[in-house]
Request: fold
Amino acid sequence: MPTLTLTFEMIVILCVLAFAIFLFVSEIVRVDVAAITIMVFLGILSYAPGLGNVADVNTLFTGFSSNAVISIIAVMILGSGLDRTGLMSSLASAILRIGGSSEKRIIPIISSTVGVISSFMQNVGAAALFLPVVSRISVRAGVPLSRLLMPMGFCAILGGTMTMVGSSPLILLNDLIISANRSLPPDQAMEQFHLFSVTPVGIALVLTGIVYFMLCGRWVLPDTQIREEATTAQSMKEYVKSLYGVDADIYEIVIPDNHPLYGERIADLMEAFHLYVIGIYHDGKKWLSPAVDVIIETPSRLAVLGHKQVIEDFANDFNFLIDHEMHIFRSDFEVDKSGIAEIVIPPNSRLIGTTAREVNLRKNFGLNLLAIHRGQEALSYVETKDHKASILGAIPFQAGDSLVVQTQWTVLASHKHNRDLVIVTSEFPQEELRPKKVGWAILFLAVSLGMILFTDALLSLCLLTGAAGMLLTRVLTIDEAYHAISWNTVFLLASLIPLGLAVQNTGTAEWLAQKILILLDGWPLWSLQAGIALLATFFTLVMSNVGATVLLVPLAVSIALSAGGNPALFALTVAISTSNSFLIPTHQVNALVMGPGGYRVIDFVKSGIIMTILFLIVSISMLNLVF
Reply:
């Protein structure tokens, strides 16, 4: 191969590259702002004399219409559509039933699932689809999102190495092998890889990632990002406790068959034992905010709100079992589904002069009244063991009364335009679920996946087809689709594409590769393979993984042939190693999770450096073992 000479353009690009890395690591500005700055800087430099190849100003912003960026946008819309139907919430509930609230059990379930999915579709697509699932699991399990998203993202990247269609470099590899074979003698021609050739390597890498986070997660994962819903719910609970004296939690109690409470009204149970019943389950049917005149049947389960000590004494005295796992009501009373809210009775409300019992506030409004605050007086159901509970429902409402209620967030959102109530609580999940649209959502997801697997259509077109289908069938509105897109991720990736092209088009990447490979000349065969893997790892951090693959596969084949190695193995080493992208958030998956997880670049460096080393060791070992 001809030896390249360092040019002035290359020196400029190396300086720009170093400046970009400095901005990313130092975080003087946000990474998306840094990426936009670099893109603009490259455009300005292209007008300088002698630097015309740095960037083509006519195509400087084509990154915003690139296949990768449009694919990410489409996948975000698809994921939002699935979430809007409640499907992702159901999947989150299923994972929580298996993994509980233990971080060490949740991480392997999420990571392995995403890893398998990403082996058959683009890893960023798998990560984007699972993002709403992980968000809900974070809220329900009380685990910071920052401790779940990075393992999920890393395993999505690793899962792309499990099949030959799991990542763009592996998809491209067979074409590059065919191209290289044209210049090789027949006896040196390389065989193409079939779909599952790399599966043993990919499985080993995914398992390595899972074990790494299970063993070292407590030290390498940041604990800085708390979900807004959880924080809001906790703040509201503390606010209500300080202002109204309402301090209670939700428990699920089991009433055995033929219990003495059979036939009693809920109102009798509430008044006699100072418990607030907010749910009842019997014979496979569940009621939330049941009317107080509902008769208790056995066996049944009750969701009750009260003090822990009161609940435990009640269970011990009357032979009840407390189900701390809340197998029946857990999903109904998670902080992203329900909570405590504050409502005011306005002057023109039709509720003035009526009582909670008269209007059946529970049944007709879906509101469980916990306290009334009027002037300096506050009455509550669960404040103490007195008889305030028995009179609260009989107090006529007055204009200006503040009501503290426990309710489902969807119910609260439905009262936003109710002129008889003014909702004071504003920070609560207000999404409108559309479970009746789940069939359409699954259909168009299947259409997208079918087009990806069985046609040669452009990836972005396949995914946009599904996204457009969800919009046309009103699975979600166009405004909801816009809101679902992480625009900082879009700008980060689109703005970095010109830098990768500049590194490649000016010959800087090839010059660097040649210099490094010259240093490795004469080394043992395994060290040459390791050097190529390191080179691919570096280039995938500063340019697209496809660009790194196109650049390095021909070089790797030439080195293997001259050193007496297996050229196909060296080419596969390049395609696998371009997935070793964990150190900085330049990979599409890392860019996707950076915003929602509240990560900084240093968080990726801290977690990614060990993962990078493990990837190199495991991948090279497995490649030589399998091939």
